[in-house]
Design brief:
The structure holds two protein chains of two kinds. By secondary structure, chain A is mostly helical. Helix content of chain A is about 75%, strand content about 0%. The mean pLDDT of chain A is about 90. In chain B, helix 7 links the parallel strand 7 and strand 8. The chains are: A mainly alpha, B alpha/beta.
């Protein structure tokens, strides 16, 4: 492995996103949405203003589940196919680097841009809310930020995979949007439907494990806290057995969701 | 004349050695059993129409496209597999219609590629200087003209002082003055012993500038050699334009009677006589017998253009 060349590729992707203000725009979106949710999230219940970190995080989780996968997919869907379509891929491939190094460099650069904007965006929220947070709350919020980054990295990995399969950018964007629909909107509905159709007789035991097949659900489970009155906000994820909801175990599942699509992308891109 | 033409493959190990290289796309044979050798320090031209298979062959030689069959070696090593990195460090590549990054400046572009090649970024400024882009180093590629992009692409290929240069349609977008400057740079590289292979579909441009060339059509190498070799291999007929003092067409016919000419035609102000190359001297002697009846005599040798179209049609 030529780490300096990988760092060169990653650096270019990262600085491209800094220069064209992508990182700034995404960070601002996160900050603004998060603050709006923190202060007005309880408006439906007739209260306005910051209530508790649990409520805030529970609301932010719903936001992040829609937003982060979408942003990650848009960020990465043309990583390879975009270079191919523009005509700049051949020159890159003629360099003394392997295809895997090229893919990894691109992924790491995009991942750095996404992680940086997520941490900057939500970090700013933590700074604004700092006066109202105790140590435990900060710890929860930190966990939420970290899991948001992992969720982004998983969907970025899927996006890069799409970029190695699609024949052109148009198809790649279609595939990316389809993945978003499937994991964010359709997946839980399908599981619920299966549960209802079978009258709950079959699959009751394996049901929680099926949730691990969706990185968005893994993200939800990672963010469930003990406070019972917010548990309903997490929907299906609450059926997951508490005994299995170990952060390190779920972290490993997320790591698998990050590495597996990237591995498939590397296999697909090898020739 | 044929004796003086280089036969590099026999004595010195070729820098580029392609054997039976084939690439199929479904039923389409983009490259079909190509054999090719380029000697050290040689400036080699690959000519053919668009779609003849030149760019595909180039990408196969660079290891960008795997061969369906055959063997390709650069400096004795296969272009793929464990030796690929060592091979890549020896080569510079200018792709056809090179696409660079609009958001980078010329200098940043070269820095990026220098780092990817693992060479010092101190090479960037001299490379820009060499292709005449020093004045535009800090401007973004977005603002570059087609010709400037082509020059920047060429500067990129020169990074790392490659021993072998692959230049795919290198003069596209350059004006005649820039084309002349480009070949001056190539001559300098040749003097340094750099081996170069370039493609073109403009024959007039490369025929006087390359050591040897290959004509490619329909995925096959139709002919290889010096311009002179190709003319002889093709055995295209010669034309004599004979201007006569009087319109004595029949007399010419009589004189040429029994000689191996392939056509005699009366044109507006001359008689055109076509014959095969080996009959050239016989025909000339016969025409000399006409004495002062001949006002002027002009021999039309087949041009490389004729050779090229003869092979690719």
């Amino acid at each position: 492995m030529e780490f300096r060349q990988i760092a060169t590729l990653a650096g270019k992707e990262f600085w491209d996103r800094i220069r064209n203000r992508w990182v700034l725009a995404v960070a601002l979106v996160f900050t603004v949405f998060a603050l709006v949710i923190a202060y007005f999230g309880g408006a439906q219940q007739g209260t306005v203003g910051f209530r508790s970190i649990e409520f805030t995080i529970a609301s932010l989780v719903s936001l992040v589940i829609y937003l982060v996968p979408l942003i990650a997919l848009v960020l990465g869907f043309d990583a390879i196919v975009g270079e191919r379509e523009r005509g700049s891929l051949d020159l890159l491939l003629s360099m003394p680097i392997t295809r895997f190094e090229l893919l990894l460099g691109k992924y790491l650069g995009l991942a750095a841009a996404l992680a940086f904007s997520t941490i900057a965006g939500f970090g700013l929220v933590a700074v604004v809310l700092a006066s109202q947070l105790n140590l435990a709350a900060l710890f929860h919020f930190f966990g939420f930020m970290l899991s948001s980054v992992l969720l982004g990295l998983a969907f970025l990995s899927l996006a890069v995979m799409v970029s190695t399969f699609a024949a052109d950018r148009t198809r790649a964007s279609g595939l990316a949007i389809a993945l978003w629909f499937f994991f964010v909107l359709v997946f839980d509905l399908l599981l619920l439907g299966a549960l209802v159709v079978s009258g709950g007789k079959y699959g009751g035991e394996i049901f929680p494990y099926l949730l691990l097949l969706n990185p968005a659900d893994v993200f939800r489970i990672l963010n469930i806290f003990s406070l019972d009155d917010v548990r309903t906000l997490y929907g299906l994820a609450t059926v997951f057995p508490r005994a299995l909801a170990e952060p390190w175990l779920l972290g490993l599942v997320m790591a698998a969701w990050i590495t597996a699509p990237l591995g498939i992308a590397a296999w697909r891109f090898r020739k | 004349m044929a004796d003086t033409s280089p036969a590099p493959a026999e004595r010195i190990a070729p820098v580029i050695a392609v054997r039976s290289a084939t690439r199929h796309y479904g039923a389409v044979r983009a490259v079909d059993g190509v054999d090719l050798e380029v000697a050290p320090g040689e400036l080699f031209g690959l000519i053919g129409h668009n779609g003849a298979g030149k760019s595909t062959l180039f990408k196969m030689m660079l290891g960008l496209i795997p061969a369906t069959a055959g063997d390709i070696r650069i400096d004795g090593s296969p272009v793929t597999g464990s030796s690929f990195r060592a091979v890549r460090r020896k080569i510079g590549y200018l792709p056809e219609n090179v696409v660079l990054y609009d958001n980078l400046t010329g200098f940043e572009t070269l820095e990026f590629f220098a780092r990817l090649k693992g060479v010092s970024t101190s090479e960037c400024a001299p490379a820009l200087e060499r292709v005449g882009l020093a004045h535009a180093a800090r401007r973004r590629v977005r603002e570059y003209s087609k010709g400037m992009r082509q020059r920047l692409g060429f500067a990129q290929a020169l990074l790392g002082k490659p021993r072998i240069l692959f230049l795919d349609e290198p003069t596209t977008g350059l004006d005649p003055e820039a084309i002349r400057e480009f070949y001056v740079i190539l001559r300098g590289l040749k003097a340094d012993g750099v081996t170069m292979i370039l493609t073109s579909h403009i024959l007039a441009e490369i025929q006087e500038r390359v050591d040897r060339l290959a004509i490619m059509a329909a995925g096959k190498i139709q002919a290889v050699g010096t311009v002179q070799d190709l003319r002889e291999q093709m055995d295209l007929p010669l034309w004599f334009r004979v201007r006569l003092a009087h319109e004595d067409f029949d007399h010419v016919r009589t004189v040429l009677g029994g000689l191996p000419v392939t056509a005699v035609e009366a044109r507006e102000d001359h008689v055109a006589v076509e014959c095969r190359r080996e009959s050239k001297m016989l025909v000339m002697q016969a025409l000399a017998l006409l004495g002062d009846k001949v006002l002027d005599l002009h021999v039309h040798e087949p041009s490389l253009e004729d050779v090229f179209f003869g092979f690719s049609d």
